[in-house]
Design brief:
This protein is of the alpha/beta class and about 110 residues long. It has one domain: Rossmann fold (3-Layer(aba) Sandwich), CATH 3.40.50. The chain is about 35% helix and about 20% strand. The longest helix has 12 residues. The radius of gyration is 13 Å and the shape is globular. The structure holds nicotinamide-adenine-dinucleotide. Nicotinamide-adenine-dinucleotide binds next to helix 1.
Amino acid sequence: MTKTLRIGIIGSGGIAGSHVAAYKELPDVEIVAVADIVPGKAEQFIERHGLAGARAFADHRKLLELDLDGVSICTPNVSHHRTTVDALRAGKQVLLENRCPLRWPRRSK
Ligand SMILES: NC(=O)c1ccc[n+]([C@@H]2O[C@H](COP(=O)([O-])OP(=O)(O)OC[C@H]3O[C@@H](n4cnc5c(N)ncnc54)[C@H](O)[C@@H]3O)[C@@H](O)[C@H]2O)c1
């Protein structure tokens, strides 16, 4: 039996739309949640991309409390460190857009 992968999207700007389009090409992938720091933006993204049933959050840490297999991090570079460390600590697989700052493990708190 095939498992459906449960995915969350953190950051719902330009490149997040490309992630969603790619996930939609795959069988057995469900986008279950979207987080964006701008209030209301995740909700608009969910509606625009037809992600029926997906939940919206303004705080990525709330999204990470869900039962997810992985997250796409689609935030600006400056927030890659925080969101990535939080996601890894929450036990999620991470697909990170672009790079994490060098020496980021040292900065982990
Ligand atoms: N692979 C590519 O071809 C490609 C192209 C463009 C951008 N990028 C990369 O993708 C990333 C995002 O770029 P973009 O063009 O989508 O930017 P964008 O500004 O369009 O979208 C970023 C979104 O993240 C949200 N956000 C910011 N901080 C957040 C946080 N802490 N938690 C949740 N949401 C937060 C913003 O409100 C915004 O909606 C960057 O790292 C960029 O370099 C990659």
